[in-house]
Each structure stands twice: as structure tokens, then as C-alpha cells.
Specification:
This protein has about 575 residues and is of the alpha/beta class. It contains 21 helices and seven strands. Among the domains are: about 140 residues, Diaminopimelate Epimerase, Chain A, domain 1 (Roll), CATH 3.10.310; about 140 residues, no CATH class. The longest helix has about 35 residues. The radius of gyration is 25 Å and the shape is globular. Pfam families: TPM_phosphatase (PF04536).
């Protein structure tokens, strides 16, 4: 089964700012570069690559198990590669090219070993707050260098994983007092919550001006304030990442991988930061023995990581809009969308029949995950058709209606894409209930349940809150580990845990959707599914889009590539 992977701007990129303050540096070992057969920088297919052929199968599996354990304990990914030489490059240059080709990012650490002249490279792909430069250098000097010098190739990787596990003990879930103070100082200098709206118990909303925090306010914020703030930010950031992934797929299909490479890089960075944020949130929720200081630090880190994710996307908004000018060739775009609507409409009857069969025949979490999909798809197809009609009117108007045209096209795109996801999910579940019956393995069971939770949350993103998303993120992490674990017993145990968390996510998500419908009886499928989001309006001109007047919330806008504060930049469009 193919399912959507979770992807996952209140602060600037704090982790990068902190890294600059701390002075992270590149670590290399050995004095020179070998001159034997060239091993060029590579795109690593997995986390252990033995291009030098110095490991046995058992040794490679042992290293893989240690890497899995490190990831589970510290939420950091160690990548190890053995080569004969660095292709005439410095260890740093060779490793950085390998990192780029392998798309390593936040919380990825590379150990590259040149076995011919016994040199190495060791560093994180991006700065990691809980692994400062001095800790990495100590591991390089005290652990890796002796093993490499003595050609202890297996020990070099195993000892590195162990040292990282020890160095990161409990540090990844909270900052030191000094680190938190530094974070507070940096955050206070840059913290501008431009469009964050917090609904208080009274129902009043906090304005942008009220949301800016001084140093004193940030360092003294109670957990009761930071907790809902971090939770809200996680949800909005997760939505922004998912929306960006959706529109980037359209841009890639239209313009190709090369033209969209920078956007894919930004999305990968955002996904990594978001995954870390959910891991931190899971720790916050599931470890009651944490002190208040540790809990506060976790929440501040979540806010920082979500800021990183939004910042990465926001930096690419202008070039993305320049590349993907929706008004260019508007007639052709509208015609193609109309054809897609017609094709989807032809699938509705069969989808409704399949959904009814699943509801009647299978009382399982997977089958129940698609109940209501065909009705939502039907409403979204109609929404898309209405948006297409609005787009045609805007194109025919003699005035220059670029924003209404773009908003109508993007609304229609979101409608047809989400309708297709809903119908595809019915087909997938129909196949999976049969697959589970025929092949009742723990891994197959977990794959189906996690996929069902992914689909439900992705297609109801306008209603689903942070608890369901956190459970899903942890389920995905455990499923990934289960799929890459050689030990069958360990894999089954991880798969069972993933299934339980996926079912928890499904239950929480369905509760969120039910509550949302009760509280928003007049909002339709486009808002529930996240096709329409809160609009970002230019304060200077009153129009959607970028300008010099700042932004505020007003109306609904089709969701677009960007961070949580820029996704609704097209301005009001479509019907809700």
C-alpha cells in the first residue's frame, strides 16, 4: 500500500542562530586523503554503506541495530559509510557532497571513514541543539580516532553510536539552563507572532501586538501558557508542511525536479524539524516524571523547531510563486481541472458502494477510517466545479483580476486533489482488509493501520488537533523502525506498538472531527479538509498576497505552499 507520509512562523531559525553562538565546526580525522581507486560522494541508500567491503553481514547488522537503538533513545539518525578514499577531496568536501546528495538534514549525523589512509569525517548535517560542537569533537577525538587508527572498523561505528547515546542522555528532551537562557535572549530579539491567534477561555482573541514577548516574559511564561501555544503551533505547522507537500507535487509534475529542487530541500528541512517537534511532544505527554523545568524546556524547543519548519518554507514562498504563476495559462489550467472533476465524478458511485460494503462487513478501525469519504469527495468535486466557474468569470473580466483568478484555480486544485485522496483511500482500504485477512503479519497489520490514520488525518486536517497527530507521528516512527529491523521478534513488537498508536490516532481524530462539526455547522468540506484556510490579507491594500502593510486574518483562502503564516496569502476565494 502506498500512503501519505506525514511531513511534517513565530521565530526565526533559532537552531541555526544558537549554532552560530555555540560555534559548531566541522570535525575531521586523519592527516590526508588517499589516492587509491576513487570513491565519489554518494547518495546513501541506507544508514550503513560498506563501499570499502570491510564488514561482514553480521557486523553490518550489528551496526544497524545500534543505530536503531540510538534513534529510539535520542531521536538522532547516525549515517555510516566506509570508502577506500575520498576521491581526491578533503574529508569535509566529500562528506558535505554526500550529505547533500543523501538529503541529510536536522538530527542527521554522518560518519564517513576512509579505510585506506585511516582518516574520517564526523559531524551533524545541521546544528543540533543538544549535541554542541564540543561534544561532537570529544567523540571524534576520544572515540572515533583511536578506532580508525587501529582499523577497528566495526567498533568505530558501534562506539560512535554508544558515545552519542551517552552524550545525548536526556539532553535532547530539554535544554540546559544556560542554553535555555541563550534561547530566550535570541527568541526575544526575533519573536514576532505575526498571525498567531490564541482563543482564550473567554473566546477573546489575542492580537499580533499582544503576542510579542519580552525577554522577561519569555523566560517566565508558565507551562499553562506555553503548552497550548506549542500545541497550536504544532497543528498549524503540520498543516503547512502537508499543504506545501501537496502543491509542490503539482509544481514538480509541471516543471520537473531540477526547477523545484530548492523547494524540495526546504520541505525536507521542515519535515525533519516537524518530526523532532512531534517526538518532543510525545515525550512531554508520556513522561509524567519530568520536572517543570524539563517540561518548559520541551515546549520551548517545540516552538523553536516549528519556527525552523515554517521559516524554511517561508523563505521559498516568493520564488515558488514566481515559478508557479497560476494566472499564466489560466484557461488551460481551468480546462484540465474541469476534466479531472469529470473523471472523479465518474468514480463516485463505485466509491459509495465500496464504502457501504466496508461499513456493513468490517467493524475495524481501518474500515471505519473511510466512512464519509465519498460524501466529502462529492462535496469537494462540486466545490471545485464552482471554483472553476469563478475562475472563468475572472479570466473573462476586463479588469486585471490576477488574485481572484489564482485563488479560484488554487481552490479547484485543492478540491480535486483532496477528493482524489478520499476516493483513493476507499480503494486502498478495500484492498488492505483483504490483505490483512490473507497475510496477518504484525507488519502488514501495522502498515494498514498507520496508513489509515495518515489518510484520515490528512483529509480532515482542518479539524484534527495535536494529540491525534502526535500519536500518528510516533506510530510512523515505530513502523519505520519495524520495517528496517532485521530481528523478526523485535520488528513484530515495534509493529504492534505502531498499530496501537495508529488506532489511538484514529480514535482521537474521529472525536476531533465530530466536535468540529458540532462547533462549525456552517463550514463545509473545503474547510474540514484544509482546502481552504484562514486568509492572510495585506493590511496596506486590503488584497491578498504580499505587500508592505503586514498581514492579518480575514475570510478563507485556498491553501498554498508556505509556512503557517503565509499559506493563506492568495486572499479570499472559493466558497466555504
Amino acid at each position: 500500500m502506498t500512503f501519505v507520509r506525514r511531513r511534517l512562523a513565530v521565530l526565526p531559525t533559532l537552531s541555526l542562530l544558537i549554532a552560530t553562538v555555540l560555534g559548531l565546526t566541522v570535525l575531521t580525522g586523519g592527516p590526508g586523503v588517499g589516492a587509491a581507486l576513487a570513491d565519489q560522494p554518494i547518495q546513501m541508500p541506507n544508514q550503513v554503506v560498506d563501499a570499502a567491503d570491510v564488514l561482514s553481514g553480521e557486523q553490518e547488522a550489528e551496526i544497524g541495530a545500534a543505530i536503531d537503538e540510538l534513534a529510539a533513545d535520542r531521536n538522532v539518525q547516525l549515517w555510516v559509510v566506509y570508502v577506500r578514499n575520498f576521491d581526491g577531496k578533503s574529508p569535509q568536501d566529500w562528506a558535505r557532497e554526500t550529505e547533500q546528495q543523501s538529503e541529510l538534514s536536522y538530527r542527521d549525523i554522518l560518519l564517513a571513514i576512509n579505510v585506506d589512509d585511516r582518516s574520517f569525517f564526523f559531524d551533524s548535517a545541521e546544528p543540533i541543539d543538544d549535541y554542541p560542537a564540543e561534544d561532537l569533537r570529544k567523540i571524534a577525538d576520544d572515540t572515533i580516532a583511536p578506532d580508525v587508527a587501529e582499523a577497528k572498523w566495526t567498533d568505530a561505528a558501534l562506539d560512535t553510536a554508544s558515545a552519542l547515546d551517552t552524550a545525548g542522555s536526556r539532553m535532547w528532551i530539554y535544554l540546559s539552563v544556560a542554553g535555555l537562557a541563550a534561547l530566550a535572549l535570541i527568541a526575544a530579539a526575533y519573536l514576532v507572532l505575526r498571525n498567531r491567534r490564541r482563543t482564550l477561555a473567554t473566546g477573546d482573541e489575542v492580537s499580533s501586538e499582544d503576542s510579542a514577548l519580552t525577554v522577561e516574559e519569555l523566560t517566565t511564561q508558565p507551562i499553562t501558557t506555553l503548552n497550548p501555544w506549542a500545541s497550536e503551533l504544532l497543528t498549524h505547522t503540520d498543516n503547512a508542511v502537508s499543504i506545501s507537500d501537496d502543491e509542490l507535487a503539482l509544481a514538480t509534475a509541471e516543471f520537473g525536479d531540477t526547477a523545484t529542487a530548492a523547494f524540495h530541500g526546504a520541505l525536507t528541512t521542515a519535515e525533519s524539524a516537524l518530526a523532532t517537534s512531534f517526538r518532543l511532544r510525545h515525550t512531554f505527554d508520556e513522561e509524567p516524571e519530568l520536572s517543570n523545568g524539563e517540561r518548559r524546556s520541551l515546549l520551548v524547543q517545540i516552538i523553536s523547531m516549528c519556527s525552523d519548519a515554517n521559516q524554511a518554507l517561508d523563505e521559498q514562498v516568493r520564488p515558488f510563486d514566481t515559478l508557479r504563476d497560476l494566472v499564466d495559462g489560466a484557461d488551460a489550467r481551468l480546462d484540465a481541472l474541469a476534466d479531472r472533476c469529470d473523471a472523479l465524478a465518474e468514480r463516485l458511485d463505485q466509491a459509495e458502494a465500496s464504502e457501504a460494503y466496508l461499513a456493513e462487513s468490517f467493524s475495524t478501525a481501518v474500515a471505519e477510517s473511510v466512512i464519509g469519504n465519498s460524501a466529502l469527495a462529492r462535496e469537494l468535486i462540486q466545490f471545485a466545479q464552482d471554483s472553476i466557474a469563478q475562475g472563468r468569470e475572472a479570466v473573462a473580466d476586463e479588469a486585471d483580476l490576477r488574485l481572484p483568478t489564482a485563488a479560484a484555480i488554487r481552490s479547484a486544485e485543492g478540491g480535486v486533489d483532496t477528493a482524489a485522496k478520499l476516493l483513493d483511500a476507499i480503494s486502498d482500504v478495500s484492498q488492505n482488509v483483504v490483505l490483512i485477512a490473507e497475510k496477518s503479519t504484525a507488519l502488514a497489520y501495522a502498515t494498514a493501520h498507520v496508513g489509515a490514520a495518515e489518510s484520515l488525518i490528512d483529509t480532515r486536517r482542518g479539524a484534527v488537533g495535536t494529540p491525534a497527530r502526535t500519536s500518528l507521528s510516533e506510530a510512523e516512527r515505530l513502523l519505520d523502525r519495524a520495517q528496517s529491523t532485521a530481528d523478526e521478534h523485535a520488528a513484530d513488537k515495534l509493529a504492534d506498538q505502531a498499530t496501537a498508536l495508529a488506532d489511538q490516532a484514529l480514535t482521537l481524530a474521529r472525536q476531533d472531527v465530530l466536535l468540529w462539526k458540532q462547533q462549525n455547522p456552517h463550514d463545509g468540506a473545503a474547510v474540514l479538509t484544509g482546502v481552504l484556510v484562514d486568509a492572510v490579507i495585506n493590511e496596506a491594500t486590503g488584497d491578498g498576497g504580499f505587500g508592505n502593510g503586514g498581514f492579518s486574518s480575514g475570510g478563507r483562502s485556498p491553501a498554498s505552499f508556505g509556512g503557517s503564516d503565509t499559506s493563506g496569502r492568495l486572499g479570499t476565494g472559493g466558497r466555504s
